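User: Structure tokens for both sequences below?

Assistant:
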Amino acid sequence: QDNSFEQFIINYCNEKLQQIFIELTLKEEQEEYIREGIEWTHIEYFNNAIICDLIENNQTGILAMLDEECLRPGTVTDDTFLEKLNQVCATHQHFESRMSKCSRFLNDTSLPHSCFRIQHYAGKVMYQVEGFVDKNNDLLYRDLSQAMWKANHSLIKALFPEGNPAKINLKRPPTAGSQFKASVATLMKNLQTKNPNYIRCIKPNDKKAAHIFNEALVCHQIRYLGLLENVRVRRAGYAFRQPYEPCLERYKMLCKQTWPHWRGPARAGVEVLFNELGIPEEEFSFGRSKIFIRNPRTLFKLEDLRKQRLEDLATLIEKIYRGWKCRTRFLLMKRCQVVIASWYRRYA
């Protein structure tokens, strides 16, 4: 019920993960159709970049203002931090406090004076400002790091590399918020170099009990997880896409014109292949560098045909090998019979 600094940075990380989910599953997919020249009607979706910017902007972000409060001279309290938020974020559509211009709760006691509210992607969350400054300023003093680095135990020494006298940095250590922000940035950079797969878990009820299905709770989760937009993009788009070269290489045995070798551009070979198989034109589209297949059942059909064709080819290879082996054995026996007969006639 009471959200403080810890929940704030956790929700910030969740926003960043949701942002990369949007980038990879909605934005990037629609941009790929445009790049490939596929006819496409853009599907609107909410991009939470504006919420991430509210938190992490280097000048007007909440974390930046929190660091500024921790560093400035004079009396610094959680109330002065909240006053600064009210000055800088007053007009932001996703920020609310008792003093902000966007707040509809000026006369509502559900939003206390010592709190602010952020409209996250998953819904509104109210944060107690008490403790933000102290928790963000919770630093490990340099002399403590040096003392731990001098320990005889190798594990303890390894946990405090900043205590190494050769690496002493006279700069002020980064705040907890800055460290967390840097860790999140590293995580995002790492994820963007990968091809992640997502598993979305839906909680059927708040009691964690079996055989109870709360429809309102499930619908709420589906909305804030972005599954509705994702399903709309998937249903309007194509379930499978692959460059022409590997597609032709995988399915070329299904057409006599492309098997065993196709002489010409890969796209032309794929066109000949799909025309030969009689796949309806609405089931696929040709992009600049890829073939796009709309429904999974078309892909399943191709895989079934390929599996059957491989079995037929295996049978053909086995038949030819057995014929060659039998013919070789027959010719050998025939030569042996001629030799035996010639020697028999010589001594008969």
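Moving on to the next sequence.
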Amino acid sequence: PLFQVQWLVDNFEPAEGCSLRRSTLYSFYLQHCSDQKLEAVNPASFGKLIRSVFLGLRTRRLGTRGNSKYHYYGIRVKQNSSLNAFSDEHGGLTFRGNNAFANFKNRRWSTSNDGSSPENKPNINDQSYSSQSESTLSQADTKQFIHENNSLIINESIQMDANIQLPDGVTQDDIKRFEGIYKDHCLKLFDVITTLDFGSVEQIWLQFWSHSGRDETIPLALFHSICSLNSVQDFIKNSDYQLYQQSVERLIADILSPMPTSATQAIRTFGKSVDGWLRAALGHLPERLKTIKLTIINAFAMTLRRYTSINHLA
């Protein structure tokens, strides 16, 4: 589309001897689409577009051994571009405002490229993986997944309509307290997922959602009343998208970089288990909330299977 071409011309220029990380450039593009409320194309289509605008653009893998990334070679950000205000920290862009993936992740996870439901798509080379427990992971295998900056960022809050009538016994303070404990819950999940401690995920879900194991910071009846609110369910949905999007980006930072076979097998075994674990934990929660959470977790599992399959083939 014309707006994409114009944005590229306004912000980038050919420059021999200069390079720009491919994922960084695509993140710039996603942020632009998010700010302008525009539909983003997928990375493959964006790659074709940028090559049509900057003829002769080459791709190189640059960086130290074991930590190299794909770069576009022969391009740079213009000196007068507003993109120079962004920084690239720990391999990911730091933007002002909302998460750059917030508007894109929904479309990418909820449907495949042809618009069909992800669960109806075939798994790539699925038979090449054996069912192997994550307990076979060695310390060396897990080391590459552990980062000092192992933090989750959730830019969400519960947006309550001032005119809405709250259920009996529920106060605004209760809702704010729920927001805090849910973000803590997401952080716990992120920590164990990104360090490949997949066996702890089921217990964390049970502890949070189940009456038998949950921390009684909020009494069970009050907890269910809060979860029945659409605005709370929307907050949970958006938080989950950010949790699992960032988990994928941390687990498989570069889909073409080698990964230990035991790690890819553990990730795939985890992906096959999450639906049953979460269904058991959600119990008698509102149906809309269960549908939201199960849809997202199954999209997450499908993404893990697809990415590890492509990694294995590569």
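User: Anything stand out in the second?

Assistant: The radius of gyration is 21 Å.
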